[in-house]
């Protein structure tokens, strides 16, 4: 009887697996082949100067490899900064006046937050529950004329393709280490980080803001190399051993050499 139950359980599992593979759904993954409705605007100028810095904690987007292929997200998409680093594919739809014919799609990375304005009753695109992308101007004008101001779009989550390894920028003070993660491939958005000194066990870090992760464990001035375990939103985890050497300093950036 037990073997019969095991047989039927295996058949059910295989059927579910086939269904999953045939529909393109991945367990634990936020990457989604379906398209969803939203709107898009732009901020900053054509040089992208107004898009630098921002609520994800990224600094010079050119130096960090994001360039102008970026967007700020509305509250409904931002997820308190945990969506920072995620990549999206966007197309202009249902607006023949402004959508550029045969423009195709753009692919962008979330690097900032479009804050809500609860004092307004119109043009509340970044207020909940609106799904909205505030693109860099160069990205917006690939889809529509800048005079459009705002356009209807469809979007979907896609995998991020990044050059080089995951980057770790170490900031903070002797009592508090703050690590900014950027240039993350795969799902792109980091959901968990652990840090390990060469004299400690693995220590979970907490999200401080954007993609800045913190620990209050003292690791400064003890001659310890630093290693990291990074988990992205689809559940994949990479371990980066001895990323920072024993003589690491604040404000330094270290290359994990690998990506998702």
UniProtKB/TrEMBL annotation:
One BP annotation, GO: anatomical structure morphogenesis
Keywords in alphabetical order: Cell wall, Cell wall biogenesis/degradation, Membrane, Secreted, Signal
Ranges in coiled-coil conformation: none
Signal sequence, renumbered to the chain: 1-22
GO cellular component: extracellular region; membrane
Gene3D superfamilies (alphabetical): Expansin, cellulose-binding-like domain (2.60.40.760), RlpA-like domain (2.40.40.10)
Domain named Expansin-like EG45: residues: 53-165
Domain called Expansin-like CBD: residue spans: 175-256
UniProt cross-references to Pfam families, sorted A to Z: DPBB_1, Expansin_C
Cited InterPro entries: Expan_Lol_pI, Expansin, Expansin/allergen_DPBB_dom, Expansin_CBD, Expansin_CBD_sf, RlpA-like_DPBB, RlpA-like_sf
Subcellular compartments: Secreted, Cell wall; Membrane
Transmembrane segments: none
Job description of the protein: Causes loosening and extension of plant cell walls by disrupting non-covalent bonding between cellulose microfibrils and matrix glucans. No enzymatic activity has been found.
Name this protein carries in UniProt: Expansin
Organism whose genome encodes this protein: Acer negundo
Species lineage: Eukaryota, Viridiplantae, Streptophyta, Embryophyta, Tracheophyta
């Amino acid at each position: 009887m037990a073997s019969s139950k095991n047989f039927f359980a295996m058949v059910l599992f295989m059927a579910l697996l086939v269904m999953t593979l045939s529909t393109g759904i991945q367990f634990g993954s936020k990457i989604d082949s379906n398209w969803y409705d939203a709107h898009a605007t732009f901020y900053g100028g054509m040089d992208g100067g107004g898009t630098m810095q921002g609520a994800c904690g990224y600094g010079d987007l050119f130096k960090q490899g994001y360039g102008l292929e970026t967007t700020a997200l509305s509250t409904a998409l931002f997820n308190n900064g945990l969506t920072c680093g995620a990549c999206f594919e966007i197309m202009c739809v249902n607006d023949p006046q402004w959508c550029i014919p045969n423009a195709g799609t753009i692919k962008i990375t979330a690097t900032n937050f479009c804050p809500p304005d609860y004092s307004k009753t119109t043009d509340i695109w970044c207020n909940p529950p609106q799904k909205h992308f505030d693109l860099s101007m160069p990205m917006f004008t690939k889809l529509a004329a800048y005079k459009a101001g705002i356009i209807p779009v469809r979007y979907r989550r896609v995998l991020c393709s990044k050059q080089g390894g995951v980057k770790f920028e170490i900031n903070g003070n002797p009592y508090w280490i703050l690590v900014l993660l950027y240039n993350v491939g795969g799902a792109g958005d980091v959901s968990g980080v652990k840090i390990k000194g060469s004299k400690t066990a693995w220590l979970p870090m907490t999200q401080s803001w954007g993609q800045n992760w913190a620990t209050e464990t003292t690791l400064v001035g003890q001659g310890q190399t630093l290693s990291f375990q990074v988990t992205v939103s689809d559940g994949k985890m990479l371990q980066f051993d001895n990323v920072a050497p024993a003589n690491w300093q604040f404000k330094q950036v270290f290359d994990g050499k690998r990506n998702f």
